[in-house]
Automatic annotation (TrEMBL), chains A, B, C, D, E, F, G:
It is found in: Cytoplasm. The lineage of its organism: Bacteria, Bacillati, Bacillota, Bacilli, Bacillales. It comes from the Bacteria. The keyword Chaperone applies. CDD domains: cpn10. Together with the chaperonin GroEL, plays an essential role in assisting protein folding. The GroEL-GroES system forms a nano-cage that allows encapsulation of the non-native substrate proteins and provides a physical environment optimized to promote and accelerate protein folding. GroES binds to the apical surface of the GroEL ring, thereby capping the opening of the GroEL channel. PANTHER family: 10 KDA HEAT SHOCK PROTEIN, CO-CHAPERONIN GROES. This is Co-chaperonin GroES. It comes from Terrilactibacillus laevilacticus. Its main location: cytoplasm. InterPro entries: Chaperonin_GroES (IPR020818), Chaperonin_GroES_sf (IPR037124), Chaprnonin_Cpn10_CS (IPR018369), GroES-like_sf (IPR011032).
Amino acid sequence: MLKPLGDRVIIETVEKEEKTASGIVLPDSAKEKPQEGQVVAVGTGKVTDNGERIALEVSEGDRVIFSKYAGTEVKYDGKEYLILRQDDILAIIG
Amino acid sequence: MLKPLGDRVIIETVEKEEKTASGIVLPDSAKEKPQEGQVVAVGTGKVTDNGERIALEVSEGDRVIFSKYAGTEVKYDGKEYLILRQDDILAIIG
Amino acid sequence: MLKPLGDRVIIETVEKEEKTASGIVLPDSAKEKPQEGQVVAVGTGKVTDNGERIALEVSEGDRVIFSKYAGTEVKYDGKEYLILRQDDILAIIG
Amino acid sequence: MLKPLGDRVIIETVEKEEKTASGIVLPDSAKEKPQEGQVVAVGTGKVTDNGERIALEVSEGDRVIFSKYAGTEVKYDGKEYLILRQDDILAIIG
Amino acid sequence: MLKPLGDRVIIETVEKEEKTASGIVLPDSAKEKPQEGQVVAVGTGKVTDNGERIALEVSEGDRVIFSKYAGTEVKYDGKEYLILRQDDILAIIG
Amino acid sequence: MLKPLGDRVIIETVEKEEKTASGIVLPDSAKEKPQEGQVVAVGTGKVTDNGERIALEVSEGDRVIFSKYAGTEVKYDGKEYLILRQDDILAIIG
Amino acid sequence: MLKPLGDRVIIETVEKEEKTASGIVLPDSAKEKPQEGQVVAVGTGKVTDNGERIALEVSEGDRVIFSKYAGTEVKYDGKEYLILRQDDILAIIG
């Protein structure tokens, strides 16, 4: 399997159809849209300036929402994954 | 429910009609306009370089004012939310 | 009332007429002009990497000078305020 | 009087005539020119991440040289001042 | 042999044919593609502000995935290597 | 005399004729050229986040090499000086 | 001799002929090319925020590979040197 480094997380993305019902474009809406996925592996955590390693908040199996344009796509064993930093994960779907 | 990570907060925004009474444009006014909402979930806090986790100042239920263009829009369970960092919240309406 | 977060301060601005007597434009003067106001609420202070919360230097009632383009305009209870970080405040008028 | 915040300093600038005797422009001279002034008030100092407040090196009455384009011009009590951070002060004229 | 400094790692890259089966360009896919390689040498680690040296997570012999455009190509003893910082390594193939 | 602040140093520059013997321009040479001078005054040092003041490495009288475009030119008592941060000094000529 | 300051290192560069055998330009190769040299002097090390001085990893006499566009060229005693920060050194040739 893939073992992410530091504060990185590997995610299997979930395809969601984006249906823009009405299609009205609000000019002052510059907000980015998130994406959904499932955590399949987590790193050992980031090391602070004090030499402490801070464990990640997300765990294997968590379903998460993350910033759409974050991370790097990886193809491994015929499947597509996304490797991103925990900081790009917005929330856990609990 | 959605559980935000770190210093993130989930907000249910409150629609407010923006009535620009007179419509006078002041050329040296480059200030951004804020928006109002209600906190529905808070993260466990940011971890400092010393490994300490700092609890958030806002709590579930707080009505807050935040920077208009901050955060990421999330649709969950048929409702729209906004996930942003506590630092994008300007004030609590108390 | 509005309760600002962290190192933020709420200010009621004081309108001052900007009379440019002569109108001579000095080409090498790239300095920004400040604005005056009165502090109506202060946050609980910024939290450092050591987890310490540093109290603000300004207090409710202080008349202050701040950077003109700093902060976010907020309308609350029919009145207009400005929410900015203490670092955008230049001096207290004592 | 005006009381500057943090590591800020208030300066009464000294007008100096800039006589460019020969007017030869050296193309590889990208250095900025400084300006002279007198310190009329100093802040209480910057607070570090450890929560320590570091007293300023300059004191009221010091004549100083500072970066020409630094700071904010303030008019107070009919006089013009400049509020800048101590870091923009290059040297004390002793 | 080459001995990388600090948090740097030397990698022997693995050539992979990039077959874009269908060739459909998704306009909102701004994600970068990673590359594969084998670690041949690791540095002694980064030194923190506390003077502590933090050992690297990757070891000689590890097969890793890294950001495609990271690092510096080095030719040594007739072979081509890539020297990059551990932070540019995304995951270990375990 | 001029007393530089913090980690600043005052230098009396030494004019050197730049003779480009052959005049061959190497297109991949983007390196900046240094300049020589003598230290005439040093600051008391930079203050770290721990509140410690770190004494400078250079002393009055040192002949040094520094980045050509660094610092601010100052005219004082009929002489021209350069005020720069110690970090812009590359080496002491010993 | 020249005594570099802080985390700086003085290097005598080694000329290497760059023979691009085939001349095929790979469009997605944006990697920079390194250069070789010998360390002739090292600084006393960088001072951290804790006031600790961290000794350099490279020593006089080390043959090193460094980023091609890093540093400042210095001519001293008829010879050409390069002064760069240790962080621009990629690896020691051991």
